[in-house]
Amino acid sequence: MYKQNKFLVIITIMLCLLWGSTQAIAQQTIDLKGVWRFQIDSLDKGIHEQWFKKKLLEKVKLPASMLENGKGNPVTIHTQWTGSIYDSSWYFNPRMAQYRLPNNLKFPFWLTPQKHYVGAAWYQREVTIPQHWTTQKISLHLERPHTETRVWIDNQEIGLQNSLCVPHTFDLSNRLSAGKHTITIRVDNRTKEINVGKDSHSITDHTQGNWNGIVGKIELMAEGKVWLEDIQVYPDLAKKMAKLKINIVNDLPQAVAGKIILQAQSFNSQQKHQTQAITITYEVSEGTKTIEVDLPMGQNFLTWDEFSPALYRLSAHLQTNNGHTSKRSVQFGMRDFTIKGTRFEINGRPIFLRGTVENCQFPLTGYAPMDIASWEKVFRKAKSYGLNHFRFHSYCPPEAAFIAADLVGIYLQPEGPSWANHGSSLGDGHPIDQYIMDETNRMAKVYGNYASYCMLAYGNEPRGGKQVEYLTKFVKYWQAKDPRRKYTGASVAMSWPLVPANEYMIKSGPRGLPWDKLPSSNTDFGDKVKNFTVPYITHELGQWCVFPNFKEIKKYRGLYQARNFELFEHDLQERGLGNRAEAFLMASGKLQAISYKTEIEMALRTPISAGFQMLGLNDYSGQGTALVGLLDSFWEEKGYIDSIAFRRFCNTTVPLTRFPKFVFQNNENLQIPVEIYHFGEKPMNNATVLWKVTDSQGTVLGNGIFEKQLIAIGNNQIVGEVQMPLNIITKATKLNLSVAIDQTDFQNDWDFWVYPATLPTALFPKVYVCTSFDAKAEEVLNQGGNVLLQAAGKIERGKEVINYLQPVFWNTSWFKMRPPHTLGFVCDPQHPVFKDFPTDFHANLQWWELSHKAQVMLLDNFPKGFLPIVQPIDTWFLNRPLGLIVEAKVGKGKLIITSVDLTTNLDTRPVAKQLLYSMAQYMQSGAFAPKENVPIEAVKGLFDKKYQPNYNTYTKDAPDELKVKKKENQ
Fold first, then answer.
1. Contact status, residue 917 vs residue 51, Cβ threshold 8 Å
2. What percentage of the chain reaches a pLDDT higher than 90?
3. CA 837, CA 840: separation in Å to the nearest integer?
4. CB atoms within 10 A of CB 234
5. CA angle at residue 113 from 112 to 119, to 5 degrees?
6. Within 13 Å, how many C-alpha atoms sit on residue 566's CB side?
7. 719 three-class SS
8. Whole-number Cα distances in Å, 788 to 248, 574, 796, 861, 863
């Protein structure tokens, strides 16, 4: 069901060939792509010196950015970036000095462009206007400049535009005679009076980069002086109508009359449908006239949703009585995106939004793709991971994204191009206030007909004491103006104020891992959403980090280089850990996947929740380098999870469980409620749900079938309870419970662990057991004896490293070392110390009892490259050598040190009890043979009370979440 539909591929190719704008045009066009003259205006003197009157000196190709043309300044330590930096250590830390050298510049906080430029740049070329154009309307169309444009024709200025969201279109009527003319365009990517916020994804170097240039279509277009200026389509499924609002512009000095022929035809579905053509008459005096028309869609019209994204093309042909014509083609879908209580509905059916945040990360070019195929690839990749929704963080994508989302069946939430914070604010009377209204109006006009355009927010997490008042007006304005989509003020975290007028909420309350206590699958976020009466979408769910994939570096063969990855890799090598990079990636990746599974399943179990927006399915390359994606920045797998595994817990239909815990003893019974989350195309009648329990060899230890039943659309549908005695398990064992819906691809599974309720006492007759490195421990080692040093709570060297079971959130650079600092751990399951303690090579849920908030040992005084038995994975910004369990030859003896607590309350801590038992068996055996020598002084250094950590971020500024909130944001 997830294979690409060949029919849709053909349609996509046809669309690529036919694609114009949302109101595809029959005008005559002159394509302006190709060679343009060019000149950088870094001193901003071009207007004063009237560069539009001179011939510019250099050459570039358009459409392209300056970076694509090799223009700009070299990146240096003094480059003035567009974006916040909350950890300035790279600029001042002596350890980073080697990466600040001009010939070895490795900037850690985001990708490094080959060149960088912020300011004005001029583009110029000649064009020849045909004779018959001189009596027509002529316009210049720049699909996506970045950002402000000023246009001159010969020596005459035409105007200025600065949209970050829609094409810049200049009316050149009556400005062009037949023959040759010079077009000069000044593009300026500086932040001026209109400040959207330097971290806004529409402009920031954190993501796409603050580029200068013009991409997409660059054209001159001509048509008659009576034309169809705009057509907006408002589907009305109940009345089987498409309500049309048509703007006719008459640029003639006299009134005209005529007719418009209208017809809609489906084009991307196997089932064909077209409406009856209708003809309407009109009369319009000089200027603009809006007429409203009902287009009957017929009895068997096709609807659009995520499962069957059927689309129509409306053709409109205007004729005047005096011979003028105008044609438009508009793509739309018959869909009704509504709210019923706390759920969204599509065409009367409840839906649950499983979304990701798209951050405008396209490192080969540095800007969002302008072609349909690239966006379709992204959307189909996300859909293969069970997603149906995209939020565009503080930017609006180009038209190609809407066309592709229409084809694939994805619900979109573009945003105004603003994160009005970090130097900007909303509602305080600054130019940004009006700009947001203007931009969202432009978005509605250009993209409003696309079926996928279902939701809108002003943008991300604003600053401003009057933001609630402003956003209330914003929501109410759009509610009244355009019912085709739903509106919220802003996408925000919890410390932002509520906007009561919101039609739906996007806040971060229902997110996070509940691993401050024993892990289970018995929890949800119901207490976070229960008091809301409108749909509540989780803001930026996830943000769990993984170690860098250094194999990814070679992918950056475009305009941006992964100098950040290069720095992290080189630093890891200098720490003596270079050979651990792949193990760190895979182990942290497995923990990341477990973290996302836990959190997403909680969201799916949450009553009345409307959905979630992950941050994100793919990595975020900025804000310190936030490796939070299960996919990399290129939307490709990293090797530790694929779409098939991810869809088990994130899909239209997902079996879920309510494990009260994941660690059992063999004197207990397994009693696990099973429920179904189902937001498929239709209910499932007579569904059969199966379960089975298997061991690590795949042997089935128990199974069952629940009674056939109806699975309706919704969640929290209990289907039965798994029951199984665990007394058949006689030794510590990892098991797996899987639940599947028969005759479907829907299945899910959970690991759990069973330990013997009674164990022989862990005896160490040949081992000196101590809790500090005392004189006797040193004596035993010098005499060739064995020592077990249980050092939990006693470690000094490394006490600054905060270790949880959950991995780093977002990254430690952006959040200034907010805990945790680690990404799980890596170990060798085949090491003989684990002979009686089943473990994966990575942190898993049974380790919570041992590793959550456990001290780690900083082993920087140990021999470089020393390999612990259990090795925590440090944040990649520091790459400190760490250990949880260490063995070594010390003096003439053998030593194991553990900073894991293996002594406290063992009667209620079966995991610790089992590991201690396994460790005792190992230390009494001939297998206890550490390979590496460690000086006694290095061991003593772990307990040195004079040790002082020296980490410094060298800056006082901090991201919003770490700041003391002012009253306006309470």
1. no
2. 91
3. 10
4. 17
5. 125
6. 16
7. strand
8. 86, 31, 18, 20, 20
Q: Secondary structure of 374-425 in the HEC alphabet? A: HHHHHHHHHHHCCCCEEEECCCCCCHHHHHHHHHHCCEEECECCCCCCCCCC
Token representation of residue 158 = 């035409």
Select from 336, 331, 337 the least CA-distant residue to 265: 331
Q: What are residue 929's phi and psi, to 5 degrees?
A: -150, 75
β-sheet with 714-725: strand ranges across: 653-657, 669-678, 714-725
Distance CA 657, CA 752 (A): 12
Return the closest-CA partner of residue 226 out of 246, 202, 199. Answer: 246
Tell me how far CA of residue 882 lies from CA of 879, 885, 898, 931, 938, in angstroms: 9, 9, 12, 18, 13
- Residue 331 and residue 449: Cα distance in Å, rounded? 7
Closest CA to 305 of 351, 271, 342: 351
DSSP conformation letters of 773-807: --HHHHHHHHTT-EEEEE-TTT--TTTT----SS-
What are the CB-based long-range contacts (under 8 Å, 24+) for 76-81?
76/102, 76/105, 77/105, 79/116, 80/118, 81/116, 81/205
Tokens of 910: 């079966």
Higher pLDDT, 967 or 310: 310
- Distance in angstroms (rounded) separating the CA atoms of residues 127 and 124: 10
Q: Mean pLDDT, the chain, as a whole number?
A: 94
How confident is the model over 592-630, as pLDDT tens digits?
999 999 999 999 999 999 999 999 999 999 999 999 999
Can you say whether the dihedral through the CA atoms of 74, 76, 79, 81 is positive or negative? Answer: positive
Q: What is the pLDDT of residue 432?
A: 98
**Structure tokens, 283:** 């009369």
Residue 442's CB is within 10 A of a number of other CB atoms, namely: 17
153: helix, coil or strand?
strand
| Phi and psi angles of residue 724, each rounded to the nearest 5 degrees, phi first | -165, 130
Question: Which of 164, 204, 113 lies closest to 622 in space, CA to CA?
Answer: 204
Q: What is the dihedral of CA 275, 280, 285, 287, to 10 degrees?
A: -10
CB of 538 closer than 8 Å to CB of 609: yes
What CA–CA distance (Å, rounded) separates 440 from 436?
6
Please name the residue that has the structure tokens 């053998």.
Answer: 894
Are 98 and 104 in contact by the 8 Å Cβ rule? The answer is yes
- Give the pLDDT band (50/70/90) at residue 816: confident
Residue 60 to residue 719: CA distance in whole angstroms: 65
Q: Please state the pTM of the whole predicted model.
A: 0.94
pLDDT at 285 over 90: yes
C-alpha–C-alpha distance, residues 633 and 546, integer Å:
13
Whether the ω angle into residue 652 lies within 30 degrees of 0, i.e. cis, is no
Question: Residue 4 has what pLDDT?
Answer: 43
For the chain, counts of helices (H) and of strands (E): 14, 50
pLDDT tens digits along 337-385: 999 999 999 999 999 999 999 999 999 999 999 999 999 999 999 999 9
Q: How far apart are CA 250 and CA 214, in angstroms?
A: 31
Separation of first and last alpha carbons in the chain: 47
Angle between helices 372-384 and 6-18 (to 10 degrees): 150
Pair 112, 147: CB distance under 8 Å? no
Q: What is the pLDDT of residues 752-765, one digit of tens each?
A: 999 999 998 888 89
